[in-house]
Each structure stands twice: as structure tokens, then as C-alpha cells.
Amino acid sequence: MLPFNTIEEAATFLGRNLTVAETLWFNYSAKKSDYYLYCHNILFLFLIFSVVPLPLVLVEMMRSLGFDKYKIQPKVSLSLSEMFQCYKDVMRMFVLVVGPLQLVSYPSIKMIRIRTGLPLPSLWEIVAQLTVYFMIEDYTNYWIHRFLHGKWGYEKIHRVHHEYTAPIGFAAPYAHWLEVLILGIPSFLGPAIAPGHMITFWLWIALRQIEAIETHSGYDFPWTPTRFIPFYGGADYHDYHHYVGGQSQSNFASVFTYCDYIYGTDKGYRYHKKVLKKLKEGSKIDGAQNGGSYYYPTQDLKSE
């Protein structure tokens, strides 16, 4: 709740007129408690998990219209009922674990001093903090993910997430309840180290979930803007990790590729891509000679 009753009081405190964004924020948040503002995350997560994967569902249903060429594992096809079942499983986890966790974790937000007042952060501040959050989450998530691929971690916890060997958007948060809790730690570390405004925190939670949905989409679209992000893994990169499955010791990173490169855990993926390139070149030659079709054998390789 803002400590001002009027915009004039807020302007006097700042020593300047409020910006348009600050005026909107004042009108919306002035009489709302910080706890109420924090709990917006529950609504945002519900909307993201429910709405963002829907275009991918439509694409899956319309693969025959030309989208099949973008499918990373083209031999795998899920029905509408199977995708809806995944959504129901995710929503059950949301209601039983994620939502309650959000409701009771507010003291930690106060402890690290996520602020809700004025002034609002500049665009540069928001971008800088989000970059730090993504880097910290990615590095921490990398090591937790590697641990979960150990014998005990995989059999007891992480195998649930790998039930989808060809991931779909709805399956991004599909996991064992304990994994959901554990992976909340990397997401919290960035804001704890570099605390900012509640708006930045909202954006962080939203963008991280949207990125996870894109990474688990199962489609490698050439027009996705994330292709322009340096060291970004993307759907093709993470899809390989799911395809190889439990024995995978490759592509652990959640967002970027630098950890896998530094620690040598992208060798299986790089070998896989090298073999695919040779097969694609060979299939083009055979196709030209024999009138055959282009062959992309993503599902036929499990090289590590």
C-alpha cells in the first residue's frame, strides 16, 4: 500500500510530476496491500499456463497444413485429449502446490525487500535486473538438473517430467511436486540477490514461465525472436534432452547453453546434430537421384 493519499502527495515526495506509468500504478495500487499485489502472481501463472500453450495446441492439430516441417520429433503426435490431460495434471499441481506456496511465501518477499512504492524502476533497471535473474536461475538450475539426473534423483523425482519424451507446451511445468518446490529456489535467488520492484518481479515470473513453455513447445520455428538472444538454447536444444531421456547427460541448462559448453555436457547434442547434418546431406543426394522425399530422422538417433 502506498503511503500517499493523493497523486499530489506522491509528486511532492518525488519532487516531480508522476510519469504516465507511475500515475497508472498509483491509481491501481495506492489502496491495495503489498500482500494482495504479491498474490497477483497466482493469477498470472494461471493465465500463462492456460493461455500461452494454446497456439501450440492449434499448431499440433494443424500439422498437415505445413507445420509438420517445424516439428522437432515429427513421428510423435498427441491427440487433443492427451494434451488436455496434461493441462489438467498441471492445473492439479498448480492448485495443490504452486498456489498454496505463493500464498505462504510472502514473508520471504518482505525479507528481501521487494518494493511496491514509487518511483517505478526505469526500463534500463528492469532489463538489467531481469538479465541477472535469468543468469542466476540458469546457472543454479543447471546444477540442480544435473543432480536430478543422478540415479536417485531421476528415479524418485525427475522421471515424472521425462514422461514426455517429446515435450509439449503444457508439459513445461509438468513434474513431481518435490521438483516443483526445489526448482522454486533458482527462481527466487535472483530477486533475493538483486531485489527490485514488484513489477519487475511479476515480469520475471511471467517471462520465465513463457520461456519454459517455448522451450518445451516441440517446435523449432524459424521466426521465433528468441533466436536473437545470445547463447539461448531454445526448443530444439531442450527437446534433445527429453528425447534421450533418463540416461541423458547432455543439455541440462534451462535457458542458455554456456554451462553445458563450459562443463562439457553438450557433447551428445553436438554429436547428434553432426550426424543429422550428414544424414540430411545424404538424403538430399538420394532424393535427387531416386525421386525420394526429404528425410529428417530426429527420432531414430539416441547418440550420446
Written description of the protein model:
With 304 residues, this protein is mainly alpha-helical. The chain has 15 helices and no strands. The model is unreliable at 287-304 (pLDDT under 50). Helix 4 (40-51) packs antiparallel against helix 6, helix 4 (40-51) runs parallel beside helix 12 and helix 8 crosses helix 12 (198-215).
Count up the helices: 15
Question: Which class of secondary structure composition applies to the elements?
Answer: mainly alpha
Measured by DSSP, the beta-strand proportion falls in under 5%
Rg, alpha carbons: 22 Å
Characterize the main sheet: none
**Total strands:** 0
* Helix-strand topology string: HHHHHHHHHHHHHHH
Short description:
This is Sterol-4alpha-methyl oxidase 1-1. Helices cover 59% and strands 0% of the residues.
